[in-house]
Amino acid sequence: MSASPSTSSWSFRLFTNLTTWVLLAILAGIALGYWAPETAQEMKVLGEWFVAGIKCFIGPIIFLTIVLGIAGMGDLRKVGRIGLKALLYFEIVSTLALVIGVAAAYLIEPGHIDRRQLALPETTVPGNGDGHFDWIQFFLDNLTLQVLLAAIVCGIALNYSRHRQQVVDGLYRLSSLVFKLLKGLMYLAPVGAFGGMAYTIGKFGLSTLLPLGKLMLTMYVTMAVFVFGVLGGIMRYYGLSLRKFLRHIQAELLVVLGTSSSESALPRLMEKLQEMGCSRAVVGLVVPTGYSFNLDGTSIYLSMAVIFLAQLYDVPLSIADVMTVLFLLMLTSKGAAGVTGSGFIVLASTLTALQKIPVEGLAFLLGVDKFMSEARAITNCIGNGVAAIVISKQEGDFQADAERTLD
Predict the structure, then answer these.
(1) Residue 231 has pLDDT above 90, yes or no
(2) Residue whose C-alpha is closest to residue 283's, from 177, 179, 127
(3) CA angle at residue 397 from 381 to 179, to 5 degrees?
Protein backbone atom coordinates (compact mmCIF):
# COMPACT_ATOMS: atom_id res chain seq x y z
CA MET A 1 0.00 0.00 0.00
CA SER A 2 1.57 3.28 -1.11
CA ALA A 3 1.70 6.35 1.03
CA SER A 4 -0.91 8.99 0.43
CA PRO A 5 0.13 12.16 -1.42
CA SER A 6 -0.37 14.22 1.72
CA THR A 7 1.88 11.89 3.75
CA SER A 8 4.58 11.97 1.09
CA SER A 9 4.36 15.75 0.92
CA TRP A 10 4.68 16.03 4.70
CA SER A 11 7.70 13.72 4.74
CA PHE A 12 9.35 15.72 1.96
CA ARG A 13 8.83 19.00 3.83
CA LEU A 14 10.15 17.43 7.04
CA PHE A 15 13.44 16.33 5.51
CA THR A 16 13.96 19.47 3.46
CA ASN A 17 13.35 21.70 6.48
CA LEU A 18 16.51 23.31 7.86
CA THR A 19 15.19 22.97 11.41
CA THR A 20 15.01 19.19 11.03
CA TRP A 21 18.59 18.94 9.86
CA VAL A 22 19.88 21.21 12.64
CA LEU A 23 18.11 19.06 15.23
CA LEU A 24 19.47 15.85 13.71
CA ALA A 25 22.96 17.39 13.67
CA ILE A 26 22.70 18.27 17.37
CA LEU A 27 21.67 14.70 18.22
CA ALA A 28 24.52 13.34 16.10
CA GLY A 29 26.95 15.65 17.87
CA ILE A 30 25.77 14.43 21.27
CA ALA A 31 26.17 10.80 20.17
CA LEU A 32 29.67 11.34 18.79
CA GLY A 33 30.73 13.26 21.91
CA TYR A 34 29.55 10.43 24.13
CA TRP A 35 30.89 7.45 22.17
CA ALA A 36 34.04 8.97 20.63
CA PRO A 37 35.05 11.97 22.74
CA GLU A 38 38.53 12.40 21.26
CA THR A 39 37.18 12.49 17.73
CA ALA A 40 34.34 14.75 18.82
CA GLN A 41 36.74 17.34 20.22
CA GLU A 42 38.30 17.66 16.78
CA MET A 43 34.90 18.79 15.47
CA LYS A 44 35.25 22.06 17.38
CA VAL A 45 36.61 23.76 14.28
CA LEU A 46 33.30 23.18 12.42
CA GLY A 47 31.34 25.15 14.99
CA GLU A 48 34.00 27.87 15.13
CA TRP A 49 34.03 28.27 11.33
CA PHE A 50 30.25 28.56 11.15
CA VAL A 51 30.05 31.13 13.95
CA ALA A 52 32.94 33.07 12.39
CA GLY A 53 31.10 33.09 9.05
CA ILE A 54 27.91 34.36 10.67
CA LYS A 55 29.80 37.09 12.52
CA CYS A 56 31.05 38.41 9.18
CA PHE A 57 27.45 39.34 8.35
CA ILE A 58 26.57 40.97 11.67
CA GLY A 59 28.31 44.30 11.01
CA PRO A 60 26.98 44.83 7.47
CA ILE A 61 23.44 43.78 8.36
CA ILE A 62 23.26 46.00 11.45
CA PHE A 63 24.68 48.95 9.51
CA LEU A 64 22.38 48.56 6.50
CA THR A 65 19.28 47.88 8.60
CA ILE A 66 19.76 50.89 10.85
CA VAL A 67 20.78 53.32 8.10
CA LEU A 68 17.85 52.33 5.89
CA GLY A 69 15.48 52.36 8.86
CA ILE A 70 16.44 55.87 9.96
CA ALA A 71 16.58 57.20 6.39
CA GLY A 72 13.17 55.73 5.68
CA MET A 73 11.67 57.00 8.91
CA GLY A 74 12.16 60.65 8.08
CA ASP A 75 11.13 61.94 11.52
CA LEU A 76 14.30 61.97 13.60
CA ARG A 77 12.29 62.59 16.76
CA LYS A 78 10.83 59.12 16.28
CA VAL A 79 14.33 57.63 16.26
CA GLY A 80 15.06 59.17 19.66
CA ARG A 81 11.69 58.09 21.01
CA ILE A 82 12.27 54.47 19.97
CA GLY A 83 15.74 54.51 21.54
CA LEU A 84 14.46 55.83 24.86
CA LYS A 85 11.60 53.34 24.94
CA ALA A 86 14.00 50.51 24.20
CA LEU A 87 16.48 51.50 26.94
CA LEU A 88 13.68 51.86 29.51
CA TYR A 89 12.28 48.45 28.54
CA PHE A 90 15.75 46.88 28.72
CA GLU A 91 16.43 48.23 32.20
CA ILE A 92 13.09 47.10 33.63
CA VAL A 93 13.09 43.59 32.16
CA SER A 94 16.79 42.81 32.74
CA THR A 95 16.56 44.04 36.35
CA LEU A 96 13.54 41.78 36.85
CA ALA A 97 15.66 38.93 35.48
CA LEU A 98 18.35 39.69 38.09
CA VAL A 99 15.78 39.57 40.90
CA ILE A 100 14.34 36.29 39.62
CA GLY A 101 17.83 34.77 39.48
CA VAL A 102 18.49 35.66 43.12
CA ALA A 103 15.06 34.43 44.24
CA ALA A 104 15.46 31.09 42.46
CA ALA A 105 18.94 30.57 43.94
CA TYR A 106 17.62 31.11 47.46
CA LEU A 107 14.54 28.97 46.86
CA ILE A 108 16.32 25.94 45.35
CA GLU A 109 19.73 26.46 47.03
CA PRO A 110 21.91 24.87 44.32
CA GLY A 111 25.11 25.69 46.25
CA HIS A 112 24.13 23.77 49.38
CA ILE A 113 26.03 20.59 48.53
CA ASP A 114 28.83 18.56 50.12
CA ARG A 115 31.79 20.87 49.54
CA ARG A 116 34.24 18.10 50.48
CA GLN A 117 33.51 16.46 47.11
CA LEU A 118 34.74 19.57 45.32
CA ALA A 119 38.25 20.94 45.16
CA LEU A 120 38.21 24.68 45.59
CA PRO A 121 40.70 25.70 42.91
CA GLU A 122 42.35 29.02 42.28
CA THR A 123 41.79 30.79 39.01
CA THR A 124 43.00 33.74 37.06
CA VAL A 125 39.97 35.77 36.09
CA PRO A 126 40.00 37.37 32.62
CA GLY A 127 40.33 41.13 32.85
CA ASN A 128 42.71 43.76 34.12
CA GLY A 129 43.50 41.95 37.35
CA ASP A 130 41.51 44.04 39.82
CA GLY A 131 37.96 43.04 38.82
CA HIS A 132 37.32 46.52 37.42
CA PHE A 133 35.21 46.70 34.27
CA ASP A 134 36.70 49.14 31.74
CA TRP A 135 33.76 50.67 29.86
CA ILE A 136 35.98 52.50 27.37
CA GLN A 137 37.80 49.31 26.49
CA PHE A 138 34.44 47.52 26.34
CA PHE A 139 33.26 49.95 23.64
CA LEU A 140 36.56 49.69 21.73
CA ASP A 141 36.34 45.89 21.74
CA ASN A 142 32.64 45.73 20.91
CA LEU A 143 32.18 45.84 17.14
CA THR A 144 28.39 45.78 17.45
CA LEU A 145 28.27 49.03 19.44
CA GLN A 146 30.77 50.68 17.09
CA VAL A 147 28.74 49.76 14.02
CA LEU A 148 25.54 50.78 15.82
CA LEU A 149 26.90 54.26 16.54
CA ALA A 150 28.30 54.69 13.01
CA ALA A 151 25.00 53.58 11.45
CA ILE A 152 22.93 56.00 13.54
CA VAL A 153 25.21 58.89 12.56
CA CYS A 154 25.12 57.91 8.87
CA GLY A 155 21.35 57.41 8.92
CA ILE A 156 20.77 60.86 10.43
CA ALA A 157 23.23 62.48 8.02
CA LEU A 158 21.57 60.76 5.05
CA ASN A 159 18.28 62.48 5.88
CA TYR A 160 19.96 65.82 5.17
CA SER A 161 21.68 64.70 1.94
CA ARG A 162 20.54 65.96 -1.47
CA HIS A 163 21.31 62.52 -2.91
CA ARG A 164 19.35 60.69 -0.24
CA GLN A 165 17.12 58.66 -2.58
CA GLN A 166 19.96 57.46 -4.81
CA VAL A 167 21.98 56.33 -1.80
CA VAL A 168 18.96 54.62 -0.24
CA ASP A 169 18.22 52.73 -3.48
CA GLY A 170 21.81 51.54 -3.64
CA LEU A 171 21.79 50.44 -0.02
CA TYR A 172 18.56 48.50 -0.56
CA ARG A 173 20.18 46.57 -3.42
CA LEU A 174 23.23 45.89 -1.27
CA SER A 175 21.03 44.79 1.63
CA SER A 176 19.19 42.34 -0.63
CA LEU A 177 22.50 40.84 -1.77
CA VAL A 178 23.80 40.49 1.79
CA PHE A 179 20.68 38.64 2.93
CA LYS A 180 20.87 36.29 -0.06
CA LEU A 181 24.45 35.43 0.85
CA LEU A 182 23.40 34.90 4.46
CA LYS A 183 20.62 32.56 3.36
CA GLY A 184 23.18 30.50 1.51
CA LEU A 185 25.46 30.32 4.54
CA MET A 186 22.57 29.17 6.74
CA TYR A 187 22.45 25.91 4.80
CA LEU A 188 25.67 25.09 6.68
CA ALA A 189 23.94 25.57 10.05
CA PRO A 190 23.65 21.80 10.68
CA VAL A 191 27.42 21.47 10.22
CA GLY A 192 28.09 24.24 12.73
CA ALA A 193 25.60 22.88 15.24
CA PHE A 194 27.09 19.39 14.93
CA GLY A 195 30.62 20.65 15.52
CA GLY A 196 29.70 22.79 18.51
CA MET A 197 27.67 20.11 20.26
CA ALA A 198 30.14 17.28 19.54
CA TYR A 199 33.02 19.27 21.00
CA THR A 200 31.04 20.22 24.11
CA ILE A 201 30.07 16.65 24.99
CA GLY A 202 33.44 15.21 23.97
CA LYS A 203 35.43 17.76 25.96
CA PHE A 204 33.47 17.92 29.21
CA GLY A 205 31.51 14.68 29.19
CA LEU A 206 28.43 14.11 31.31
CA SER A 207 29.76 12.63 34.55
CA THR A 208 31.98 15.65 35.24
CA LEU A 209 28.89 17.81 35.52
CA LEU A 210 27.24 15.86 38.35
CA PRO A 211 28.56 18.06 41.22
CA LEU A 212 27.17 21.15 39.52
CA GLY A 213 24.13 19.52 37.99
CA LYS A 214 21.86 21.14 40.54
CA LEU A 215 23.06 24.59 39.53
CA MET A 216 22.54 23.84 35.86
CA LEU A 217 19.06 22.42 36.45
CA THR A 218 18.13 25.43 38.59
CA MET A 219 19.25 27.84 35.91
CA TYR A 220 17.46 26.04 33.08
CA VAL A 221 14.21 25.85 35.05
CA THR A 222 14.49 29.51 36.08
CA MET A 223 15.07 30.67 32.52
CA ALA A 224 12.13 28.60 31.30
CA VAL A 225 9.94 30.22 33.96
CA PHE A 226 11.23 33.65 32.91
CA VAL A 227 10.63 33.04 29.19
CA PHE A 228 7.13 31.59 29.50
CA GLY A 229 6.10 33.54 32.60
CA VAL A 230 7.57 37.02 32.21
CA LEU A 231 8.12 37.27 28.45
CA GLY A 232 4.98 35.25 27.79
CA GLY A 233 3.03 37.61 30.04
CA ILE A 234 4.39 40.64 28.18
CA MET A 235 3.32 39.13 24.86
CA ARG A 236 -0.14 38.32 26.23
CA TYR A 237 -0.49 41.90 27.46
CA TYR A 238 -0.13 43.03 23.84
CA GLY A 239 -2.53 40.34 22.63
CA LEU A 240 0.16 38.13 21.07
CA SER A 241 1.27 34.52 21.56
CA LEU A 242 4.81 33.73 22.69
CA ARG A 243 4.47 30.11 21.57
CA LYS A 244 3.64 31.15 18.01
CA PHE A 245 6.59 33.53 18.04
CA LEU A 246 8.89 30.73 19.18
CA ARG A 247 7.63 28.51 16.37
CA HIS A 248 8.51 31.26 13.89
CA ILE A 249 12.13 31.38 15.12
CA GLN A 250 12.60 27.70 15.99
CA ALA A 251 15.38 27.24 13.42
CA GLU A 252 17.31 30.19 14.84
CA LEU A 253 16.91 28.87 18.40
CA LEU A 254 18.28 25.48 17.38
CA VAL A 255 21.29 27.16 15.78
CA VAL A 256 21.85 29.03 19.05
CA LEU A 257 21.53 25.75 20.96
CA GLY A 258 24.11 24.03 18.79
CA THR A 259 26.63 26.86 18.66
CA SER A 260 26.08 28.30 22.18
CA SER A 261 26.19 31.75 20.61
CA SER A 262 23.21 34.10 20.40
CA GLU A 263 25.17 36.12 17.81
CA SER A 264 24.90 33.19 15.39
CA ALA A 265 21.16 33.87 15.09
CA LEU A 266 21.30 37.69 15.14
CA PRO A 267 21.13 38.33 11.36
CA ARG A 268 18.35 35.82 10.73
CA LEU A 269 16.44 36.94 13.85
CA MET A 270 16.39 40.50 12.52
CA GLU A 271 15.16 39.25 9.16
CA LYS A 272 12.49 37.04 10.75
CA LEU A 273 11.20 39.90 12.91
CA GLN A 274 10.73 42.06 9.83
CA GLU A 275 8.91 39.19 8.11
CA MET A 276 6.63 38.96 11.16
CA GLY A 277 5.62 42.60 10.81
CA CYS A 278 8.11 44.63 12.88
CA SER A 279 9.35 47.75 11.13
CA ARG A 280 12.90 47.87 9.81
CA ALA A 281 13.67 50.92 11.96
CA VAL A 282 12.57 49.28 15.21
CA VAL A 283 14.36 46.01 14.48
CA GLY A 284 17.52 47.84 13.45
CA LEU A 285 17.64 49.93 16.62
CA VAL A 286 16.26 47.54 19.24
CA VAL A 287 17.83 44.16 18.43
CA PRO A 288 21.52 45.16 18.06
CA THR A 289 21.29 47.43 21.11
CA GLY A 290 19.57 44.65 23.03
CA TYR A 291 22.51 42.32 22.46
CA SER A 292 24.53 44.58 24.75
CA PHE A 293 21.84 46.03 27.06
CA ASN A 294 19.01 43.48 27.19
CA LEU A 295 20.70 40.25 28.29
CA ASP A 296 17.91 38.56 30.22
CA GLY A 297 19.52 35.12 30.27
CA THR A 298 22.92 36.52 31.23
CA SER A 299 21.31 38.58 34.02
CA ILE A 300 19.69 35.49 35.51
CA TYR A 301 22.96 33.59 35.28
CA LEU A 302 25.07 36.33 36.89
CA SER A 303 22.81 36.90 39.88
CA MET A 304 22.32 33.18 40.42
CA ALA A 305 26.07 32.56 40.16
CA VAL A 306 26.85 35.03 42.96
CA ILE A 307 24.34 33.41 45.34
CA PHE A 308 25.54 29.94 44.30
CA LEU A 309 29.14 30.79 45.20
CA ALA A 310 28.01 32.25 48.53
CA GLN A 311 26.20 29.00 49.31
CA LEU A 312 29.14 26.92 48.06
CA TYR A 313 31.55 28.67 50.45
CA ASP A 314 28.90 28.86 53.20
CA VAL A 315 29.04 32.66 53.27
CA PRO A 316 25.87 34.25 54.71
CA LEU A 317 24.64 37.35 52.88
CA SER A 318 22.55 40.04 54.53
CA ILE A 319 19.68 41.83 52.80
CA ALA A 320 22.03 44.79 52.30
CA ASP A 321 24.57 42.48 50.64
CA VAL A 322 21.95 41.12 48.27
CA MET A 323 20.78 44.63 47.40
CA THR A 324 24.39 45.59 46.71
CA VAL A 325 24.76 42.60 44.38
CA LEU A 326 21.59 43.54 42.50
CA PHE A 327 22.65 47.18 42.18
CA LEU A 328 26.13 46.31 40.88
CA LEU A 329 24.83 43.75 38.41
CA MET A 330 22.07 46.10 37.28
CA LEU A 331 24.82 48.42 36.02
CA THR A 332 27.63 46.09 34.99
CA SER A 333 25.60 43.28 33.44
CA LYS A 334 24.69 45.55 30.53
CA GLY A 335 28.08 44.84 28.97
CA ALA A 336 28.45 41.20 29.97
CA ALA A 337 28.18 39.77 26.45
CA GLY A 338 30.18 42.34 24.55
CA VAL A 339 33.67 40.97 25.19
CA THR A 340 34.90 37.40 25.56
CA GLY A 341 35.31 36.62 29.26
CA SER A 342 33.55 39.79 30.37
CA GLY A 343 30.89 37.78 32.20
CA PHE A 344 33.60 36.64 34.60
CA ILE A 345 34.88 40.20 34.85
CA VAL A 346 31.41 41.31 35.93
CA LEU A 347 31.23 38.50 38.49
CA ALA A 348 34.74 39.28 39.73
CA SER A 349 33.97 42.97 40.15
CA THR A 350 30.80 42.13 42.07
CA LEU A 351 32.57 39.68 44.39
CA THR A 352 35.45 42.10 44.91
CA ALA A 353 33.09 44.92 45.86
CA LEU A 354 31.23 42.62 48.24
CA GLN A 355 34.51 41.39 49.84
CA LYS A 356 32.86 38.31 51.31
CA ILE A 357 32.88 35.58 48.67
CA PRO A 358 36.24 34.20 47.41
CA VAL A 359 36.78 35.30 43.80
CA GLU A 360 38.65 32.02 43.22
CA GLY A 361 35.30 30.25 43.22
CA LEU A 362 34.75 31.41 39.65
CA ALA A 363 36.89 28.45 38.55
CA PHE A 364 33.91 26.20 39.28
CA LEU A 365 31.75 28.10 36.84
CA LEU A 366 34.40 27.79 34.14
CA GLY A 367 33.90 24.02 34.15
CA VAL A 368 30.21 24.12 33.30
CA ASP A 369 29.92 27.52 31.66
CA LYS A 370 29.79 25.94 28.21
CA PHE A 371 26.71 23.94 29.16
CA MET A 372 24.94 26.88 30.75
CA SER A 373 25.77 29.19 27.86
CA GLU A 374 23.11 27.53 25.68
CA ALA A 375 20.34 28.55 28.08
CA ARG A 376 21.75 32.07 28.41
CA ALA A 377 22.05 32.51 24.65
CA ILE A 378 18.57 31.20 23.90
CA THR A 379 16.98 33.39 26.59
CA ASN A 380 18.89 36.45 25.34
CA CYS A 381 17.75 35.73 21.78
CA ILE A 382 14.08 35.32 22.74
CA GLY A 383 14.20 38.38 25.00
CA ASN A 384 15.50 40.63 22.25
CA GLY A 385 12.93 39.33 19.80
CA VAL A 386 10.11 40.06 22.26
CA ALA A 387 11.58 43.53 22.89
CA ALA A 388 11.46 44.36 19.17
CA ILE A 389 7.85 43.19 18.94
CA VAL A 390 6.83 45.19 22.03
CA ILE A 391 8.45 48.41 20.81
CA SER A 392 6.89 47.91 17.36
CA LYS A 393 3.47 47.52 18.98
CA GLN A 394 3.99 50.61 21.10
CA GLU A 395 4.99 52.60 18.02
CA GLY A 396 2.04 51.30 16.03
CA ASP A 397 4.45 49.86 13.45
CA PHE A 398 3.44 46.22 13.83
CA GLN A 399 1.58 45.15 10.68
CA ALA A 400 -1.98 43.95 11.15
CA ASP A 401 -1.64 40.79 9.05
CA ALA A 402 1.44 39.75 11.02
CA GLU A 403 -0.43 40.50 14.24
CA ARG A 404 -3.12 38.02 13.25
CA THR A 405 -0.39 35.44 12.72
CA LEU A 406 0.92 35.85 16.28
CA ASP A 407 -2.34 36.45 18.16
Answers:
(1) yes
(2) 179
(3) 55
**Residues 41, 210 contacting (CB under 8 angstroms):** no
Quote the pTM value.
0.71
Residue 179 CA to chain centroid, in angstroms?
21
pLDDT tens-digit readout, 323-367 = 988 887 886 666 555 444 456 666 776 777 677 888 767 766 765
Contacts of 289 (CB under 8 A, 6+ apart): 83, 86, 87, 90, 148
| Contacts for 111 with CB less than 8 Å, ≥ 6 apart | 105, 215, 307, 308, 309, 310, 311, 312
Classify residue 338 as exposed, middle or buried by CB count within 10 Å of its CB (0-12, 13-18, 19+).
buried
Q: What is the pLDDT of residues 246-291, one digit of tens each?
A: 998 988 888 888 776 777 778 888 888 988 888 887 888 888 878 7
